[in-house]
Structures are given as C-alpha cells and as structure tokens.
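step 3/5: co-fold with FE2/S2 (inorganic) cluster
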Amino acid sequence: MRIENKPGYDRKLQRGKRIQITVNQKSIFAYEGELLSTILHCEGIRVLQRKHRNGKASGIYCGMGICYECLVKVNGVPSIRACQTQVVEGMVISTDIVEQS
Ligand code: FES
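step 4/5: write tokens
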C-alpha cells in the first residue's frame, strides 16, 4: 500500500520515475530513489532472511544500516542491506533467504 497524498498536506508528493523490479519472482513497480526496505514493507513482506543457526526470521529493525537484520539477495548478490539500498530499474530481489554464515 502506498500513500498518494498525505491528508491535510497541500503539496503533492514528489517521486522519482516509475520503474519495474522483481521481488520473489513477482513483477512490481517502484519509484526511483526509494529504498528496498520501503518497497518490501509496502508489499507486506516482513521476513527478509532466516538465521542459519535456528531458522529464526528477521527483517527491518534499525532502518539505518547498523543491525544487518534486513539482508536480502539483489541480482544474485547475497547480504545486501535493504534499508541502505535504492532501487534501480530491473533489479531482482529475493527475500526469506537463509543468512550467509
Ligand atoms: S534494518 Fe538494520 S541494517 Fe537494515
């Protein structure tokens, strides 16, 4: 779910160009400049990886690049922090992956 206009706020939201990305083999749209964590949250995806030791789920926690709980696979590259990565046209993202040991 995305907010198109903020209630009680006169100015229109300014966004980057609308682009297509793939999340877990599903094509979705995003706006240039958005963070992966924002898009995944909008799509209702809360589990981004699982701990290799016990299978516990983890997802967005600090939102500022410190905790490493939001790791996803981007274009085949594992351990990318969703909260620190901006989307790019054609990006392919996988979530709910087992963390790299
Ligand atoms: S949510 Fe903590 S590093 Fe991304």
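step 5/5: annotate
The pocket of FE2/S2 (inorganic) cluster is lined by residues 60-63, 65-70, 81, 83 (CB under 6 Å).
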